[in-house]
Structure formats: structure tokens, C-alpha cells
């Protein structure tokens, strides 16, 4: 069985976090990479679970030390994948990264033989807007800029290896698990 880097991307609010949580729950052989970010924690987010929340100064010094496999800036904040965790885990098991499209494409460039890119898309754009409204934790301005990002990210589907429609959690999870099994056994 191959140990691979599965990158799960998709527009904000599409439900990729829920799919990844369910995936980790039912497949204990996988390791999930926790990214570092300079953004403030949202309500309910825990250090080391959702993200490692670090200062911009620390982030910049870790960039200098080549500590990130990839990193990017969104909405004025930095996000990065810790390199040592991913490289260590890949010796033993497959790793799940929940990161954006630019990060996914960077992984593919850095590790073309290991990276499998999976894009989660909403059944309709309206479903996504409703979900973003439901979160209620963001300003109108932040929502607008996220929706612009949605259009951009959906336009990148062709560059991904797989596209999974998140119609129901059950079905999306089944498809993601099928992709993982197929790729690991290739
Ligand atoms: P949020 O602030 O909503 O948690 O995340 C904003 C965006 O940053 C999302 O598109 C998310 O996938 C992306 N992201 C989270 N972690 C990383 C990372 O380590 N690297 C990159 N490139 N993007 C990330």
C-alpha cells in the first residue's frame, strides 16, 4: 500500500472540515496535518486541533527556517503546513491536508508522485451561500471576499485529480474513501 499525501480543498463553507473529521474518525490509519496560522481562533477552535495559532513574527521566522512544506497568505493572514510532521508521517502512513488550491498545487509540484488532489464542491452555489450565512461568525466584508474566493477556487477544479460533490455527508465521505483506497492500492 502506498503512503500518499491527500489534499482536500474546496471553497470556504463547503463542508470539507466535516468530511475530513468523519474520514479521520472512520480511518485510523490516516494522519491529519494541522496547519499553522496567524489568524485569530474562531469560537470553538482549539489550539493544535483546528490550527496551531502563532504570531506573524514566529511564522516569518519559521519560513526562514524552511519549516513549512508550503505556505500561503489568505485574507491578510498566513497559513502553512508543517514540513517535519508531514515528512515523518509519510514514512508510516498516508497524510490528509485540508488546505487551499494554491497550497494543493504547490504540494503537487513538490511531491508529484505522492500528492493526490481532491476538490470538494457544493451541489449548487446557493447551498454554499446559505452555509456561509449560517456560520454567523463573519462580517459582511469578510463574507464577500470569501465568496470571491469561492468563484476562483471552483474555477481550479480542472487542475485537481478528483472532484467530489458534497450533496450528503454520507455520499461525499464514501467517495473520498473510495478515492483514497484506489490510490493507495495502485
Ligand atoms: P480558514 O481561515 O477559513 O480556516 O482558512 C482559510 C483558507 O486557508 C482555507 O481555504 C484553507 O483551506 C486554507 N488553509 C488552511 N491551512 C492552510 C495551509 O496550511 N496552507 C495553505 N496554503 N492554505 C491553508
Number of alpha- plus pi-helical segments: 7
> Taking all residues together, what is the mean pLDDT?
92
Low-confidence stretches: none
**Derived structural class:** alpha/beta
* Total individual domains: 1
Share of helical residues:
40-55%
**Sheet with the most strands: spatial strand order:** 2-7-1-8-9
CATH superfamily: P-loop containing nucleotide triphosphate hydrolases
What is the rounded Rg? 16 Å
Shape call: globular
Distance between the termini: 8 Å
Name the hetero compounds present.
Answer: guanosine-5'-monophosphate
CATH class, named Alpha Beta
Kindly report the CATH topology. Rossmann fold
User: How many individual β-strands?
Assistant: 9
Query: How does the major sheet shape up?
Result: 5 strands, parallel
Helix-strand pattern: EHEEEHEEHEHEHHEH
Percent strand: 15-25%
CATH architecture: 3-Layer(aba) Sandwich
Amino acid at each position: 500500500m502506498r503512503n500518499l499525501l491527500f489534499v482536500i480543498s474546496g471553497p470556504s463553507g463547503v463542508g470539507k472540515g466535516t468530511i475530513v473529521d468523519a474520514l479521520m474518525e472512520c480511518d485510523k490509519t490516516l494522519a491529519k496535518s494541522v496547519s499553522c496560522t496567524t489568524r485569530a481562533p474562531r469560537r470553538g477552535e482549539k489550539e493544535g486541533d483546528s490550527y496551531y495559532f502563532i504570531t506573524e513574527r514566529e511564522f516569518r521566522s519559521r519560513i526562514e527556517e524552511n519549516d513549512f512544506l508550503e505556505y500561503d497568505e489568505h485574507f491578510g493572514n498566513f497559513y502553512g503546513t508543517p514540513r517535519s510532521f508531514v515528512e515523518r508521517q509519510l514514512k508510516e502512513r498516508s497524510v490528509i491536508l485540508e488546505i487551499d488550491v494554491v497550497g494543493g498545487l504547490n504540494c503537487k509540484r513538490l511531491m508529484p508522485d505522492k500528492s493526490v488532489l481532491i476538490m470538494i464542491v457544493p451541489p449548487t452555489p446557493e447551498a454554499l451561500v446559505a452555509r456561509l450565512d449560517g456560520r454567523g461568525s463573519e462580517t459582511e466584508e469578510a463574507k464577500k471576499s470569501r465568496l470571491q474566493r469561492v468563484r476562483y477556487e471552483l474555477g481550479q477544479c480542472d487542475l485537481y485529480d478528483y472532484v467530489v460533490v458534497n450533496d450528503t455527508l454520507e455520499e461525499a465521505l464514501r467517495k473520498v474513501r473510495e478515492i483514497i483506497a484506489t490510490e493507495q492500492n495502485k
